[in-house]
Amino acid sequence: MYTIKDVALKAGLSQATVSRVINNHPYVSEDKKQAVQRAMEELGYVPNSSARRLRNIKTKKVAVLISRIVNPFFSQLVDAMEQKAAKHGYQLILCNTRINPEKELEYFELLQSKQVDGIILAAAENKWEAIAPFTRYGTVIYCNEYDPDATVTRVRLDQVEGGYIGTKHLLDKGHRKIGYCQGNDSSVSVNRRRGYLKAVTEAGIEPNPEWMFKDIFTIDNGREIFRRIAAMDDRPTAFFTGSDEVAAGMIKEAQLNGWCVPDDLAVVGFDDQPIATLMDPQFTTINQFTSDIGEKAMEVMLEIIEGKRENKAEDILLPLKLIERQST
Amino acid sequence: MYTIKDVALKAGLSQATVSRVINNHPYVSEDKKQAVQRAMEELGYVPNSSARRLRNIKTKKVAVLISRIVNPFFSQLVDAMEQKAAKHGYQLILCNTRINPEKELEYFELLQSKQVDGIILAAAENKWEAIAPFTRYGTVIYCNEYDPDATVTRVRLDQVEGGYIGTKHLLDKGHRKIGYCQGNDSSVSVNRRRGYLKAVTEAGIEPNPEWMFKDIFTIDNGREIFRRIAAMDDRPTAFFTGSDEVAAGMIKEAQLNGWCVPDDLAVVGFDDQPIATLMDPQFTTINQFTSDIGEKAMEVMLEIIEGKRENKAEDILLPLKLIERQST
DNA sequence: TTTAGTATTGAAATCGTTTTCATAATGTTA
DNA sequence: TAACATTATGAAAACGATTTCAATACTAAA
Q: Where is the signal peptide (chains A, B) (predicted)?
């Protein structure tokens, strides 16, 4: 493993000159520059970036924290971010927190140790007060998830609206008994529930806690929820699932049990993932323009990093759209 | 941002002693240890890990390079790796190369600069000779993809076998005109094609290059392939797609055009992703026990890092299994 | 021919750690 | 009591880069 010293020696010049060549400083004569480059080439020299970072060089890397990479929403989000970052010469580093608050916090070491210039929080298991201390080491913004106390930019959707339009759609179709699923108590889930409750109560309906489920994330969870409601005496005729994965599982399991969707059970998903158009029936869902969110979040992050934008408490809201298909 | 110097000053001790406390060295008296810890606490001190890394401290981080995070196969693979790594106190860092050789190579900077202890290559756009120089900076192994020249461990599947059993299954069902899709010319694709060709020629059939497609990755690609073959005069009656995403797109598009699967077109996927059981018909595919691959690869990586295993040219093969469903 | 400015280079200080080496204090054995 | 470990500590030298400062060479203006 060669160092700058070896290069300097080989080129018959000082470390300072070699460093100047590496960093494209002016005031290096053409011939010395070439000599240095040749020496680097011959040795296969690569600067040690730990050493460089010690001298406060930007890393041109951004980390994204997500909770569950197996959720296609996150895959797509990250993919869009990555593309945007690459376009600006930045690398994206992906960290999967598995909905574990400690793990989420551990990844902030990347910031502290200057391995990344910024962190995009697309998962938020920790309170803002736990995150805040890290902001002095680099840029932190939220994307999709957020903490209301946060004093940084939040690129997100109006999830209250999301919950509202999904539920309203079912009400408009004449349903009065509408079930609801959510993940954990994240900001997204909490707000969506608010929207659901708003729509339901507006329609003069008393929400039935029996029909509201928590910690529901996967296709298998969706299947299970179907079985739970199928076993009920008084059961919902429609379901707002908050996730296309859950919707897919629920619909499939219903069909396997001889139910007809939407006649026996109407289902609304969330995300407009590919699965929504692949299943039969193609199902109604809410498109949140995932790629746009990812792209916008990365755009904002890069602007802040490069000093072109201030990182203040600000919500950047992106649109949501109900896509009606055959499951409702 | 406080340094070890500040802590030393505050505790009335030397930097060396502080460092010893940080690193749990023996030979530090209990009272000084407490004093140091108190000082660190009060200042909110965190060691600068760039500086630490300069002195060759292990990072307890492993990077995984994948080509396409939106492919559920990779999401699942990574998820399994992450779980295994976490169990051993390691962090996983995910890098999406987007099938771009330069990007793939750029991520090796993480190794060079000691930001990770090892890299698992689940994408292999570069030749081994391009990768080899980096091996002196840390551990490199392959997972799923590989380069035959590589002199490191490869955790993978017998893809020739995979291509063979998928095609053989269609032959056994009486098909003689079997189409084939692959991604780019990766080791996985190349070997799978070998298996396909072996099965076909064994059956005395001349493979038809018209029915063999390349650079096919996505659901939309699958849809397009259907349209291409539908427009042919002489068309295949069955398809080995090499991917559940492609199979899903193809089946859906066929149905939208009034074809019946499997009667008008039989389709075999690859991966046994959730989608394979959600669609109607549920489709035949090849289960490659994705989680097992990820888990095994991470296990091997950690063993090598911790010196319990030698990193030599060795293939660790995991099983494949054809899952027959209703699409064939 | 001075004088001033600009281009070019290297020695040495610096970044924040860990580690080596030296020294001192204490305990243990013969 | 002498000789030798063992424990505890700090000063200073790494690690591999960048950057400051000073020195020199060259050019253009006065």
A: none
